[in-house]
Write a structure and sequence with these properties.
Rossmann fold, five-stranded parallel β-sheet, 67% helix, 230 residues, alpha/beta
Length: 230
């Protein structure tokens, strides 16, 4: 769950000093008005357990001693890759500062120089920038999804046109085949009828039987043509 509400922002405060933790928590509450930051103070060992149960708007991490704190910072980043982080320290050298930046820390403040007002401003900026980045990312995904949907729609329309063309071609083919079959079959049946009626002379019983077979087969072919049209 998220431990903030509509009027406040939640801070995961990872601080080694109890005195500093209490001081920072009070500053965040009062300096953050009318939308204060609600700090959840945890030790380095408890930070990951707290992240497993809750989500936070921002993390404020004390980086002293550095070697121990940087490990915690990496663990926090893995556990909450999208959560903005502001770092607090007494002193870091250039190499350490670069290492902190590589972990995606939004801001780096020195305890000896930071005021309560500056701290709140830094946290608020980190939260707002993270929200803006999230919205921008969602907008990019939405634009990409709309583009993909439009492409899929165009592909579907192309396939539908192709299917309609294939259907028309197939229908024309069936009509042509039907015509080509029916015309000679009609002629065959007419001639069979003339022969059976004795127009060309008398026929034997065997000949009449054979003509009946021809007529039946012609009817079968007509039925096949009808089935093709159905």
């Amino acid at each position: 769950m998220n431990v903030s509400d509509a009027r406040s922002s939640s801070v995961l405060l990872v601080e080694g000093s109890d005195a500093d933790s209490a001081c920072i928590a009070r500053a965040l509450t009062f300096q953050g008005e009318p939308h204060p930051f609600v700090a959840q103070i945890v030790s380095r060992n408890d930070a990951l357990r707290r992240l497993a149960r809750s989500t936070f708007d921002v993390a404020l991490v004390d980086l002293s001693p550095f070697e121990e704190a940087i490990t915690t910072l990496r663990d926090i980043r893995r556990a909450a890759p999208d959560m903005p982080i502001v770092a607090l320290t007494c002193h870091v050298d250039e190499h350490q500062a670069l290492e902190v930046l590589k972990l995606g820390v939004q801001d780096h403040l020195f305890k000896t120089e930071v005021s309560a007002k500056l701290l709140v401003r830094s946290l608020r900026f980190a939260v707002e920038r993270n929200r803006a980045d999230t919205l921008e990312s969602l907008n990019r995904k939405l634009v990409a999804a709309e583009r993909s949907l439009q492409e899929a729609k165009e592909q579907l329309e192309t396939k539908n046109r192709r299917l309609a063309e294939l259907y028309r071609t197939a229908h024309e083919f069936v009509d042509n085949v039907s015509h080509e079959f029916r015309t000679p079959l009609t002629v065959i049946k007419e001639y069979v009828s003339l022969i059976e009626d004795g127009v060309v002379g008398d026929i034997s019983g065997e000949q009449r039987r054979m003509l009946a077979i021809v007529e039946d087969r012609a009817d079968d072919l007509n039925t096949m043509v009808d089935d093709m049209l159905d």
